[in-house]
Amino acid sequence: MKVYFLGTGTSQGIPIIGVDHPVCKSTDAKDKRLRVSIWITWGEHSYVIDCGPDFRQQMLSCGCTHLDAILFTHEHADHTAGLDDIRPFNFRQGEIPVYAHQRVIDNLKRRFDYVFETVNKYPGAPSVKTIEVINDQPFAVGDKTAIPVNVMHGDLQVFGYRIDDFAYLTDVKTVHETEVEKLKNLKVLVVNALRVEPHDTHFNLQEALDFINLVKPEKAYLTHISHVLGFHEEVQKQLPKNVFLAYDNLEITI
Ligand SMILES: [Zn+2]
């Protein structure tokens, strides 16, 4: 299984429009972060987790030509705003399955009403088939199983996903111990780490490292990163030897 980091930045991306911060001015490609998303492939199978505003650019960068489904974590715009850009996949494949919590499906129906139109739908509009994700109900992704992991982003419920020995959790602030049980014996855990300072709805760096210590994956990658966390090169040097800052276009094999 291959995991390609399509984007590793927090909601505004890095650089931020109009911001003079040294990390926003960095010439290191690893300091340029699109909105957070991953592409998971194995054999003929191809899935993305989330579909943010940079989706089109990300699909072009990674060379994805076929998509089996989109798995959504939650409804925030940095994770969903690219839904209109699935059309090239629709034109080749037909409707794209979308897995999400029922609350997220309802939200998408409001924000992308034209996608869900049943009368006189514009023929070029995106086309999706929604499938509700329910906690403690694993579902098939190709010949593998996705296990939903129920976590909290402040007061908002968010799904992470485990597939085989890989798990992806973003926009997490708290995780109930029953959900930690679903994350035992991982080869790779991806988890969000926004910045050094605490934040109301995201792990900061120390909380992410404490969570990694609790879960004990073989390796962990940090994502959903703010410019104020610092330069990629400098932050990476301070991390434990099995913890890595993810960066855009990084591909790992599990
Ligand atoms: Zn986010």
UniProtKB/TrEMBL annotation:
<dbReference type="Pfam" id="PF12706">
    <property type="entry name" value="Lactamase_B_2"/>
</dbReference>
<dbReference type="InterPro" id="IPR001279">
    <property type="entry name" value="Metallo-B-lactamas"/>
</dbReference>
<dbReference type="InterPro" id="IPR036866">
    <property type="entry name" value="RibonucZ/Hydroxyglut_hydro"/>
</dbReference>
<feature type="domain" description="Metallo-beta-lactamase">
    <location>
        <begin position="35"/>
        <end position="224"/>
    </location>
</feature>
<dbReference type="GO" id="GO:0042781">
    <property type="term" value="F:3'-tRNA processing endoribonuclease activity"/>
</dbReference>
<protein>
    <submittedName>
        <fullName>Ribonuclease BN</fullName>
        <ecNumber>3.1.26.11</ecNumber>
    </submittedName>
</protein>
<keyword id="KW-0378">Hydrolase</keyword>
